[in-house]
Specification:
This protein has about 180 residues and is of the alpha/beta class. It contains five helices and nine strands, in the order αββααβαββββαββ.
């Protein structure tokens, strides 16, 4: 199954230079999401290595929402959204972090799941690691545990995995 997903990612994804700013190479996975069989193979490959080890799935805004919702549906589990500031209506906790091209923060409702819930984090790209490191912090500050991290692409040259020491990370394709 991972080979089917990997083949679909390589075949369908697009490279967009200088987006969202000059010098940044954006890996566009929208064509993968738009292809039903490709999306299914990607979702299956994201969750398979952690089968039976998680109770809920969390996705980061915005492409992570697509993956988390698909994975939650496929596994029959719930989905938590980790959002940009000002998007969640109830009490939140926040985590600031740096991006490849700036800095921002993420927020979560800490009462969304029961204490001790094992959460699988899914996202599209592991680049500098800031988004996933901040998400891990939010999950743990909420009283839950990080069961693992699963991403479609890892941009190895940016060294993001170094910000996730001791974390189990599943990557479908490294570029």
């Amino acid at each position: 199954m991972p080979d089917v997903a990997r083949d679909a990612i390589e075949r369908l994804s697009r490279v967009v230079p200088d987006f969202p700013s000059p010098g940044i190479t954006f890996r566009d996975l929208s064509p993968v999401f738009a292809d039903g069989p490709a999306l299914r193979s990607v979702i299956d490959a994201l969750v398979a290595p952690f089968d039976g080890e998680f109770d809920a799935i969390a996705g980061m805004e915005a492409r992570g929402f697509v993956l988390a919702a698909g994975a939650a549906y496929a596994t029959g589990l719930g989905c938590v959204m980790i959002r940009k500031p000002g998007k969640l209506p109830r009490q939140v906790i926040s985590e600031d972090y740096d991006l490849e091209y700036g800095s921002t923060s993420l927020e979560i409702h800490p009462d969304e799941l029961a204490p001790g819930t094992r959460v699988l984090l899914v996202d599209d790209v592991l680049a500098t690691g800031g988004t996933l490191a901040a998400s891990c912090s939010l999950v743990e500050r909420s009283g839950w545990s990080v069961a693992g991290i699963s991403v479609i692409l890892e941009l190895r040259s940016l060294g993001g995995a170094k910000k996730l020491p001791g974390r189990r990370v599943n990557t479908l394709l490294t570029v």
